[in-house]
Amino acid sequence: MGLPKVHRLKHWKDFQKIYQQGTRYSSSHLSLLALSETEPDNSLRAAATRIGISVSQKVSKKAVIRNRIKRQIRAALIELLPDLSPGWKIVVAVRPKALECKYEHFLRELKQLLVEADIINGHKREYVL
User: Fold this and answer.
1) Which pLDDT does position 38 carry in this prediction?
2) Cα–Cα distance measured from residue 114 to residue 93, given in angstroms and rounded to the nearest whole number
3) Which end of the chain is less crowded, N or C, counting CB atoms within 10 A of the terminal residue's CB?
4) What structural domains and CATH numbers belong to the chain?
5) Which of 18, 26, 120 is nearest to 77 (CA)?
6) Cβ(67)–Cβ(106) below 8 Å
7) Is residue 126 very low, low, confident or very high in pLDDT (cuts 50, 70, 90)?
8) Which of 17-21, 27-31, 42-46 has the lowest mean pLDDT?
9) Which residues neighbour 24 within 8 Å (Cβ) at sequence distance 6 or greater?
10) What is the pTM of this model?
């Protein structure tokens, strides 16, 4: 099961824009790039937060392993989706150390990075594990 279509970041132009203009937040296994797409003038209706996952061949040469990591991150993001603020474009980039991670590690690190980026609603930084 994937992310809902509304929340998917698909086009390479969007990825490029986030890589160039977005703010980077890093942990030991993941890197999160975030770009707010809400403008002060159009604050009436914010678009859904869109998310993309990037796993390079530096992580593993085997597509099976890269796809397994993507599935685990996608499952963690689906669990965190109700807490996300609308109007963001996010790219989750995986670092080579992520081979040793399980689902729980990804969930914890993603939540920590999203709170650090102020994307999660209603959470303060000091309350994160």
Assistant:
1) 64
2) 13
3) C
4) 5-120 (3.30.230.10)
5) 120
6) no
7) very low
8) 42-46
9) 31, 32, 33
10) 0.85
